[in-house]
Write the structure tokens for this entry.
Amino acid sequence: MSINLTLLIVMGALYACGIYLVLERSLTRVLLGLMLLANSTNLLILATGGYAGLAPLYSKDTAAGDYSDPLPQALILTSIVISFAVTAFMLGIIYRTWVLARRDEIQDDVEDLRVAETPSFDAEDDAEVPAETSEFPLTMLGADGHSVSNHRVSSDGGTHDGAAGHATSNDGAAGTTLLAGGREIAAEQAASEEKPGSTNVAPGPEGDGK
Amino acid sequence: MNLASLAPLAVVLPILGAALTFMLIRHSRAQRAVSIALLSLTLLLECLLLASVWDGGTFAVTLGGWLPPWGIVLVVDQFSSLMLVVSSAVSLAVLVYATGQGMADGDQDAPVSIFHPTYLILVAGVSNAFLSGDLFNLYVGFEILLTASYVLMTLGGTGPRIRAGVTYVVVSVVSSVLFLISIAMVYGATGTITMADLAIKLGELDQGTRTLLHVMLLVAFGIKAAVFPLSFWLPDSYPTAPAPVTAVFAGLLTKVGVYAMVRTETLLFPGDSLNTPLMVAALLTMVVGILGALAQSDIKRLLSFTLVSHIGYMVFGLAMSSVAGLGAAVFYVVHHITIQTSLFLVTGLIERRGGSSSVDRLGGLAKLSPLLALLFFVPAMNLAGIPPFSGFLGKVGLMQAGVELGTPLAYVLVIGGVLTSLLTLLAVARVWNRAFWRRPSDAEHPDPVLLATPAARATGPGAKANTVTLLPRTMVGSTIGLVVLGIGLTVFAGPLFMVSDQAAHDMLDRSSYIQAVLGEDTVVPMVLTAGGGK
């Protein structure tokens, strides 16, 4: 059995490029990487079939050993169809990511980050009620039934902010300040002052808390 | 004609149902009726299959007129038919739950009508993977169920789901590529991909090649089964999907990976010396998974971590490769599919009733809805392994097998298993104390729904109607059905343990499987290592 060296070298190069691209953070490159991986695997399956023989058609004179192995080709056909479907689906997802976030990037898990940033104190045992510093304040009731929200809007028009976290609702917020942690800060920066472990930020409709 | 020759229908019926529901995409009522009817029919058929192999025996169905080892075979034995019945029962319950949710919320949106066809395709893929007697057909089964799961995971296309979907799709595709590479290498080394034929021919290879193939297959299946170093994708991606989808994923998808691992270990590579690494992986899966669960405040994420953790028990049973250990693992898989799915369904109900699935926002649910509390309490205690539930019985079986094996590592795993069980109890008790037991006003950020209820509940005819929409009867009914099934596993644990032990015996013996596929007069090579051939 002879081995087609060119095919093997091409396969190795495709695997190398594919793995490199899959490790990127840009989604389009990841997709390209997956496509390369799938295609190099197809070459690998082809290589397992041995050398290229005659077409596996019925003819009385051909010896059985001269046919090329049809099974790997059937397997490749199936795997091409599958990777085609997955590629189409990935393209759909990438487009959707772009529509939603305007970013062609793999995004972090918000909940994961929150758990990672949470200090070891237990919020239930910690008696101090966290200050309300969210950009979109939410009046809450504590255990005694009193409002615990300590935000103070110093300019008029401060009630414009609804529950929706659209970026457009920032309009007109300039000059609005909040009292947080004993000092006054601009409303725009209040969200970033949020203490780790406090879950006062109401997640936006897309859950990114921005 | 043998009843087992109807086995292909377990795959064909759901695919037929998918086609029909796809045509009925504009008639949601007909769509619901068709999918539930066809899935019930499939379940009935699979119960008949299980009944036909209940006392032992293996049947192979040859497809397409090509005889094995060339053609594709479907194999029905005790393990595969048991898995088929449990998976179909669970997916039927989840389907009823999902239609109940759809009816309550009045789904007229286009993306949701795609749910039924996709769901049935997923069931077909799972059935195909369980029945397959051919490595490539197993790959196709995996791909069918994975592609359907991509669609279900990103249903509706909202931001968090797309974000979680990307991780899930990329990890799944990479694991599938690894699986395909392993198949190519197995074919290159042996010239066959029929599992029964491989069981003979792999034994003739030299040790190095065989170990390489073994490790590659295990890594590919380990990603799908979420075994520890390869499990990080799971808690990231599962919780964002809709409640019924998460429930069916948690119940079935990882278990298909476990099933494939069991087949690889017992049929293809018996007596190989990878049991020690598998045991270490099982220990780490159990402990690291449950420690992750303790850090979570969201019930869905917490349950995803317990899911990862309890995969470790199954791998532990598998790695012992004794009849007692493998039998307990088979029992544990059946138990865990049912319990984990019912817990996720209850979490969906909690989310509807309490407005959130975060324990920081929940409280007082036991007073608000005692039925919901009961539905959570029973499977939660079952998961933690409190006697007399099936979780306890499965764990006792595993511990006994571990002590029987008697190696130091086995004792370490027994201790790790008990510790994991205790930590699971801690995790679910935390959820219970916070979400059900304390006053709503004691929660850090109580959900307005919970605070408003005392006034709304006091009087008024509107209050009762409100409760009905929050907890639709179909959703509660199917959840009750699954919880009762879980209790049924406890009541009928004796016969079930008998069947799973016999299935384990047949799998370790191999001759019944190989002779069913390749003919009665096939000589089955003996397994040389002491642990395997008993």
